[in-house]
Amino acid sequence: MPTECSRLAETLNRDCQCVSVDRDRLRRALAQGEAGADMVRLIEEERPHLFAETTVFLGQACVERMAEVVAAVERVAARPAWAERVLAWAPGAARHETGAAGVFMGYDFHLGQSGPQLIEINTNAGGGLLNAALAQAQFACCEEVAAILPGVHPAPTLEQDFFDIFREEWRAERGAAPLVRIAIVDEKPPSQFLYPEFLLFRKLFERHGLEAVVCDPEELRFEGGALRHGEARVDLVYNRLTDFGLESPGNAALCQAWLAGAVVLTPHPRAHALFADKRNLALLTDAAALIELGVDDATRATLLGGIPRTRRVRREDAGDLWASRKQVFFKPAAGYGSKAAYRGDKLTKRVFEEILEGDYVVQDLVPPSARRIGTEADPVELKIDLRNYAYRGRVQLVTARLYQGQTTNFRTPGGGFAPVLTVPSMSGAE
C-alpha cells in the first residue's frame, strides 16, 4: 500500500504541469449571488495565494488508508474510557454533553515513506466550501488527467452534503423543531483570513431558506433563555472561534447559552477535547494506553501505523529531546494553525527553554511530500499537506495545501488550497 501511495502519483506530482485553475470559472463560482464582486476582490486583492495554481495527485490506496485512520480515531474517541482520560485535562465547558458531533473535523496528513501519517486533528477546519468551488475550476490538457478530473466531487452535491451536516447537528439536538436562524461566529470576522468563506456559508444557508448572519461573539447576548443577535433569536451557531473552551470573557454569552441548552453549537468545546487537543495524539500512539482503554488489535495497529509517535514534553527528558531535535516537531497542546509550532532542527536554545516551560507535545518528524510546479528549467518544489474534511467519521472531501517554509502559510506564490485528484489503483503496481 505505501509503495502504491507514493509511486502511482509521485510521477504526476513531479512531472505533470498540465492541470491548473480556470480563473474565470473560479470567479463565477465565488461570485454567485449578492456582493459577488466584493467576494472576488477580497480573495484576488487581499488573499492572492489562497488558491494554488495546480492540483495534487494521490493514489487510491492512500486515500483509503487515510479514511481508515480517521475511522479508527473516531472509534476510540467514542469510548467512555477515552472521554474520561482526555476530559481530565480539558476546559470545564468540555464536560457538557451534547448530541451534536461537530461539523468540519479536519484530519491533516503528510505522506511519509510508510504511507499517510496523521499529524494533526482540528475541530473547526476551514476551507471546505472554498475547496468546493476550487474543485470545479480545474482543466486538463492531456488525456491521462482528463480521465481523472470527472472524479472530482461535483460542487452542488458537495455543497448540499455540507449543508446537510448542519441539519443533522440540529436534529441531533432539536429533533423536528424548525431551524430558522444560524450565526457564523468568529472574533472580528472581516479581519479573519478565511472571512470570504464565512460569506459563502451565509449564502449557502440563505439559499436553503434560513436566516444567517456573520458576527463577532461580543455581538451576542444570552437573554430570556435565548441566544440573541440584535433582537433576533439564534438557533444554531457555526463556531469558527479558536478559543476552543469558550473561556474568553468575550465569549461568555455564547458559552452560557450553550451550557444552558439554549443554542446548538457546532463544533463545540467537547469535540475539541475529544479529538483536537494535541495531548490526545500521545495517547493514540501509546500502545499500552490503547490496551488499557480496551482498543481492539486492528484499531491499535491502524493508529500506531498511521500516526507519528507523539509524546508529552517533560523537562526531565530535555537532554534526549535536544539531542534528537532534528528528527522531531514540537507543538503546543492547545495550539492551532501551526502557531508556536517548531521543527526541531530550527530551534534555538531560548525557544527550547520556552517549550520546556510550556505545555507541548513532541512528534516524530514526517517530512511532507512535494508537488513540483514551474518549468523544467526553473522548477519550484512546494510541500503538500493533505486535509480530510470529515463528519461523524465519514470523509467528505480530501484537499491539499501547497506551501514553502516550515508550516502552511498561504503566502507562497503558486501555493494555497489545491484539489486532490485520485489516481486509481493498478493491479500489480510496484
Task: Measure the end-to-end span.
Answer: 9 Å
The fraction of residues assigned to DSSP E strands is: 15-25%
From the spread of the alpha carbons, the general shape counts as globular
Alpha carbon gyration radius: 22 Å
List low-confidence stretches.
Answer: none
The main sheet comes to: 7 strands, mixed
Q: What does the average pLDDT come to?
A: 90
Tally of strands: 20
Helices and strands: which structural class?
Answer: alpha+beta
How many helices?
16
Structural domain count: 1
Tell me which oligomeric state these chains represent: single chain
Can you offer a commentary on this structure?
The protein has 430 residues and is α+β, with helices and mostly antiparallel strands. The chain has one domain (2-308, 366-423). Helices cover 36% and strands 24% of the residues. It is built from 16 helices and 20 strands. It has helices spanning 2-15, 23-30, 36-44, 60-77, 80-86, 128-135, 143-146, 155-174, 195-207, 252-259, 269-276, 279-284, 287-292, 297-306, 318-323, 349-357, and strands spanning 19-21, 56-59, 105-112, 115-122, 138-140, 181-185, 211-215, 220-223, 226-229, 232-233, 236-239, 264-266, 310-312, 328-332, 342-343, 360-364, 370-374, 379-391, 394-403, 416-423. Strands 2, 3, 4, 17, 18, 19 and 20 form a 7-stranded mixed beta sheet that branches. Strands 7-6-11-12 form a 4-stranded parallel beta sheet, covered by helices on one side. A hairpin with a 2-residue loop joins strand 9 and strand 10 (232-233). Helix 1 crosses helix 4 (60-77).
List the helices and strands and how they pair.
Elements: H1 2-15, E1 19-21, H2 23-30, H3 36-44, E2 56-59, H4 60-77, H5 80-86, E3 105-112, E4 115-122, H6 128-135, E5 138-140, H7 143-146, H8 155-174, E6 181-185, H9 195-207, E7 211-215, E8 220-223, E9 226-229, E10 232-233, E11 236-239, H10 252-259, E12 264-266, H11 269-276, H12 279-284, H13 287-292, H14 297-306, E13 310-312, H15 318-323, E14 328-332, E15 342-343, H16 349-357, E16 360-364, E17 370-374, E18 379-391, E19 394-403, E20 416-423
